[in-house]
Structures
1.
Amino acid sequence: MPLISATKRIYDRRFVPKEVNGVGTTVAPGNINARNVDLLIEKKLAGGWVPTLEGEYYWYGLGAPDCGTLEPGSVACPSTGSGSNVGGLVAGKAYMGTVALMFPEKMGWASCKPFIRYQHLNRELSSTTTKATDIGVNYLNQGL
């Protein structure tokens, strides 16, 4: 996630280059391709309030089903001499959105910033979906 000041907007785009034979098994290897785009906006308003809007989109492409995902259609990881293959990568698309608001008043020596975050993952192989909603409070200290 990029760092920002309270007065700037930042657009950040990251790429993970293609990794040849990074997934699958030795019998059926595949390549990893992953992309993500994110946007984070924070702006200090009159009175000291600081709203935050954040959004991210991810795309994970695998050239072969990776082992160990426990998805229907995935293969079991083969055992190696020193243990098991790591495995567990899932091809699909995901997005996440967060809304937060930092209060101008301090509680103790820091500020409170309650947030709500929604996450959504669509798996390619099994055509299944995972959704999660998080609600929490960040306690932000600007240094001692």
2.
Amino acid sequence: MTFGFGKNIQKRQEIFILVNFVTGNFPFNNLAKKTLRHTVQYITMKSPLILAIDTSCDETCAAVSRGRKILSSVVDSQINIHQKYGGVVPFLAKRSHEAKIDYVVKEALKRARIKNFKSVAVTIGPGLAPALEVGISYAKTFNKPIIPVNHLEGHMLSAFINIPPRGGMFPALGLIVSGGHTELVLVKKIGQYRLLGQTLDDAAGEALDKLAKMLKLGYPGGPIIEELAKKGNPDAVKLPIPMQHSNDLNFSFSGLKTAALYQIKSVGTVPTEKFIDDMCAGFQKAISISLTAKLKKAIMQYQPKSLLLGGGVFSNLYLRHAIKKAVKIPIFYPKQKKYFTDNAAMIAVAASFYQGQTFGKNLDRQPNLNFLV
């Protein structure tokens, strides 16, 4: 590789700094900053263009990337469609994806100012089967190589949107917390994963939505609960910490949801504003303790060098702060809040690590796709 700047002596210094960066020993002086900036620019300039598509649930998403550099990202949300039902209705989601997919993809290409691209990355699972079908079918209309992407891997690797992975950060732990999943994953290196634990019933995001429904707060519940919790006392309502002392790395949130339901019923048909605020704060705290307890156990057991956070629930600042306080290893997550929730930028980034590999053309939806145990 030719870096294209500096004389021979300086170039040797630059290579030395780059090697130290890759191995994790990064002296962050001005020369180091310049070396990293020029190197990333060089690699990005040479990376092929990827069009990415995600229709796994209730957002129609498309993005264009050059390697891990995002050139555009478009998301068409269906919240207004599903709001009155308190959750996602699969056939309505499919209908909306079919109506919006062409516009969303063309808009992503327009914003990226490109007309051609090397390959198409598309989410094949997990997700709603009818919704996944729309994105996969559309990806097949292009006469381009298709890179199938695991939606969960996309969430986990969203930390690398617009930045390269740092040397010395593997093995890592991945914690994915979303509306449909709560999972702990051992990341030996990118592409080599082992599922360590997952929810045995409701996901954390699902539990938050159900609490919001019980309190008649609206949908989606997570952002509403986070806001109300700021005014509440987390210790005013007694709630259990699910599976805090179990020996495995699995999660469970249905018991917490049931305990909250009994508390709500006990205060009558119209809970006070104070009770609602306190319940939101207590419920949020119980989830954070459950997550951090399993994280600490996994860190003790597997000694990872870093932690990757992904999934829409981590839009919640309280939960991110709780994890930062609980663990002492470096934590990586998306730098922009919009990349926590479903998007195609993370699908493009995940696909960039598999660029050039050959995949079969008979792609099909895999609604229950997961990491290997």
